[in-house]
Structures are given as structure tokens and as C-alpha cells.
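Data availability excerpt. The first of two example chains:
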Amino acid sequence: MTDAVVALLAVAVTKATPLTLGALSGVFSERSGVVNIAIEGIMLSAAFFGFIAAAQTGSLAVGLAAALVTGALMALLHAVLSVRFRVDQIISGTVINILAVGLTGFFNRQLFATGAPAGQSILPQVPLPLLQDLPILGPILFRHQPLTLLAIVLVFVSHWVLFRTRWGLRTRAVGEHPLAADTAGIDVARMRYANVVLGGLLAGLGGAYFTLESVPHFEPLMTNGRGFIALAAMIFGKWTPLGAWGAALLFGVTEALPVALQIQGFNVPYQLVGMLPYILTIVVVAGAIGRANAPAALGVPYVKS
């Protein structure tokens, strides 16, 4: 494998970080039966408030905690609307996306009218002796910053939780047949609340990537549709963590391609190559790659009889 290909794949893994975390967020939420198109808004809010917290305290750890809390609160709002009040889940997610755009845009103008704070840093690369020195796999998988490494770990942890634990069995049960789960003594509402909020934490990590690991500043709408691409990755991956990660890496390659082409000296209009992730998203969502079966009770509110 040439150095150029290794470099391309390494950048793809980095670019796939928010997509991976967003896709995992969708997996937990939708496996429990709650459609979550609010991932975009959750990531945008987490990116902003994580940045604000880090900038005001000078601590990236505080910023990361703020991003997690923001993600959990936004997801909790979605859960309350969807589970408690049985609002149409697509409408609820859309409302949260619009709310996130409005909140971050308003506070960004109010707080940074005279310019963003200077001196903000980003999370450093985590040294992993032995692993980072492995041929090929070392530079591709193990020479990254903490959120990218954490995303890779969370893929395997999430897969184990969903398919090898009681929690995962109950999550899948309330997403496939909530009445049967309720009859078996599982609290359907509680499981859905918990999984949507857990998804919010994961999406919060995805948002933190933008302002705490990628660039040390915030820009309005900087998530740039990554939440929707993450949903496409989740669908392409058939609602499984490993499948979603594979799809996120595919999207990551399309995002890394412009960088690789520039390094190799190819003069391709960046607008043309920049369309690739969105074109791929359309293809995946349209079902051209292959149809996946969603959880049977996805999007259906459960009314306890």
C-alpha cells in the first residue's frame, strides 16, 4: 500500500469521526423505536456550547463536558416531545434542528460581535506506543486525536452492548415489538428515553469534534449537514454500529479525497469534489445501494394499554 493511500485513509478516519458518532447516536435512538433526524441540530449545539465553555474557562475538558451536557439536553427535549407527548418524530427532530440554528446563530452574534476569543487550543494527538508504530494500521487507525480514537472504540463497545447485553436486547425489543416488550415487564418509555439521551451524548461528542478537535473556533452552521450524512451512514449500515462505521468511513473517504488530490498536485475544482459526500448521501437514502429493514416499530409512538 502506497504512502498516498495510507495518508488518504488516515484522513478519512479523521473526517469520519463526527459521522461515526452521529451514526451511533442514530443507531441507539432508532433501535429503540425513535426516529432521530435531530442529530444535526444536536451536534451543532454541542459544537457551539462546548466551544463557549472551553473559551471561557480555558479548559478543553470543561468544553467537552459542556458539549456532552448540551447533547444530552437537546436529545432529552426530543425524547419528551416524541415519547411523552407523542409528537410526530420527524416534526420533533426538525424543530430541534431549527432551534439549534437559531440558538447558536443568535448567541454567536451576541457574544462574538467584535470577534471570537483568541488563544483557543484543540485536543492534542494521543500517543499510543506500539500501536501507532504498526505498519499501515498504525498511521491509519492509531495516530489520531482523542475523539477520533474514542469513536473507534465506541463502535465496538456499542456493537457489544446492542447484541451481547440485556440492555441491548431490551433496546431492540422496544424498537421491534413494544407491546411484547411491555408484556415481558420492560418499561418501553424508560428504555426509549434512555436510548435517545444516550444517543444525544454520542452526538454531543460528534459536535465537540468540530470546535475542540478539528478547528479552535465556531462558525454558524459549521456542521454543514454532517448529521444528515450520519443518518445516511446509519441506514447504509443497516442500523448496526459496525455497519454504520463502515459507511461513515466511506463518506470519510469522499471528504478526504480533495485533500489527497491537492497533495498529489491534481487541480480539480474543490466544489466538484466537495459534492461527493452529498451525492453519496442521496444515493444511499434513495436505496440504490440496497434496501435495509428498519426496526419494525420505528417512528410509532407506544400507548400503554
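And the second chain:
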Amino acid sequence: MSQVHALILSGLGINCEEEMAAAYRLGGAEAEIRHLGEIFRGTCSLHEFDVVNFPGGFSFGDDLGAGKALANRLKYKKLPSGKRFINELERFLGEGKFIFGVCNGFQVLVKMGLVPNLRGAMEQEVTLTHNDSGRFEDRWCSCAVNAATRTPFLRGIDRIDLPVRHGEGKLVIRDEEIRRGIIEESLNCLSYCDAQGAPTAEYPLNPNGSALNCAGLTDRSGQILGMMPHPEAFLSRYNHPNWARLVSEHPGNGDGDGLGLFKAMVGSLLAKKEGIFQDRPGSALHLRNPPCND
């Protein structure tokens, strides 16, 4: 039987690699944590894996803007082969494989120009900057999935509760043309929402003031997904602030919503490897928890 192999990048300030590796393993995949230095030295190849992951953290201390220094390092770093790291990522995507970034990893993807990449030039088209609140936000949020999204990683999910923990999570779009393209092509795959599941700009339901209430973006192919909330931080219902209520109301299911997302990701990757990958059907799974009181 086929096996999904996930590469979890670490080093240079990334600090959520263990949680992300645990999420993949609980989701049914094999996961390896490898330092970026191994990739840069050529002792580890991206092409041995099915999905490359950029976990959360504080790369380079966020001293030059969240994710910017690491994004530049990744975009322009030359490997022993003479090719740049970004060229290897392009080849990786050309093989039909996937990239996932969370929080600081999402910031890195945005600032490398990998998402939304509407113009296909891998130039930065949006940014993630300081929250409207002017402070670091550490709270739980509900997010609604865009039913028309192209990413298979959100297959079968229409709503999900996850924690956020970021100081620079506000999406700002460069111009109206890019904004229109994001909307028309359903690249805004995940939106902060209210108790009824409607996208909202209201604080603190929307913790940062993102344009389009955006909590996650994909590229046009759907092979790249970036999101601000942390699915790897909600693997068990006991992670949730309302865990006692969740366990009493759903005694037979101990999974957190984040683990449900990773199981959907692994299932999608496995289906693709086995040649039964299909376009995303209508949402079937409603991962919904009672609201918590922040």
C-alpha cells in the first residue's frame, strides 16, 4: 500500500515542527523533520517527499517583518547543484506535489510569491502585516471553508475551529486587480467567521483585520495552501478551552478539528498517489465546536 511522506522543515527560528510532525503521523502519514541546512547542503532532497511543510515559528526573530528574511533566504539561496531553492520548489510542484505553510510558514509562502501567484511570476502580490489590534493575538477562532476552493487539503470540511497566535496576520492585497482575481478564482479558501458560519470582519472573531476576512490562501493550482490558524495545535479535543463540553457531547470522538484537517490532507495525498484523485466534491464534514469565551 502507498504511504504519504511529509517533509517538515525546521531551523532558523521555526518552532512548531514537532507538533506538525505529530499531526501527520496521527493522520496516517510518515513525517520527517529535517533542518533547512540539510536541504541547502544537498544531503536531503525535497523530491523524496509528497508534501513540503513550512511550520509556524519566529524565523530570524521576525526582526525584518514576519517571514521576510526566511522568504528571501529560500528564494535566492543557491544549492550545491547551482540551482536556487525556489527552482527546486518549482520542480517539486511540477511533479504534482504539494506545499503547506502555517502562520510564519504562511508568511514565508506569501513573501516568496508562491501564494496567491495570480500572475505566475512568483512575485509578492499580498502581504501579512501587523494586526489591527496592535498586539499579539493568542485566541481561538472559527473559520469557514470556501466551497469552491481548489485545494484538496480542505476536502470534506466546511467549518473548523482553530487557535491563532500571531502579531502579523493581517492580509493586505497589493491592488484591486489582485483582489478581484483572488475572489473570482476562489483562492481565499478559509475565512474567519461568526457563530452562524458567515465570514466576518468583527473583532475578535476576525483577530487581525485581514482583507476578505482571509485566514488562508491557495495558489491557482490548489497545490499550495497557507493559513494563519494552527491546525497542528488542535489534535485532541482536550486541547480546546471547552474540552469538557466537547467530550461530554461527543464521547466517542477524541479528535480535534486540526487532526481532522490533517487526516483529510493525508487522505487526499494518498488518493492522488493511488491514482483515484478527483476534483473536490461538495463539503461533507462539519467540524464545529461550541464557541469559547476569550
